[in-house]
Write a structure and sequence with these properties.
The chain contains four helices and six strands, in the order E-H-H-E-E-E-E-H-H-E. It is an alpha+beta fold and 125 residues long. The strands form two sheets. Strands 1-2-6 form a three-stranded mixed beta sheet, covered by helices on one side. Strands 3-4-5 form a three-stranded antiparallel beta sheet, covered by helices on one side.
Length: 125
């Protein structure tokens, strides 16, 4: 699972655009309420990234679900688009997930120079 690093600068900007109902408050609360419990799920690996995103993606089997983030809107306010394997849309969104996976395994000099970081999340302490 990939999620925005709760302590990165992009998170602050995203939360500035979202309505108060969508904000998790301080990063420590997000870690306590979301990341820490998820880190205890057997077989689930958590990774964080530090750049802004305009959509949320979920890949389940051969299907991608996509939700948009808009000004003053939560991702859950968005229509949910569902794309099946074999469509150009599915291939696009899957390629974004594979890009994140590749950066976890082997950071790319081009993206590293731009400050992009994708890494396995470890619970503090």
């Amino acid at each position: 699972m990939y999620t925005m690093d709760p302590y990165c600068a992009s998170r602050k900007d995203r939360f500035r655009l979202e309505p108060a109902a969508a904000q998790w408050g301080d990063p420590d609360r997000y870690v306590r309420s979301v990341l820490a419990p998820l880190s205890e799920v057997p077989g689930l690996a958590l990774y964080t990234f530090n750049f802004p995103c305009s959509f949320a993606m979920e890949e389940i089997d051969d299907t991608c679900r996509v939700m948009l983030y808009g000004h003053g809107k939560r991702g859950t306010d968005s229509p949910i688009w569902v794309f099946q394997s074999g469509s150009a849309q599915h291939e696009y969104f899957v390629s974004q997930i594979r890009w994140l996976e590749a950066l976890c395994k082997s950071p790319d000099d081009y993206w590293s120079a731009k400050g992009v970081v994708v890494r396995r999340w470890r619970q503090p302490g």
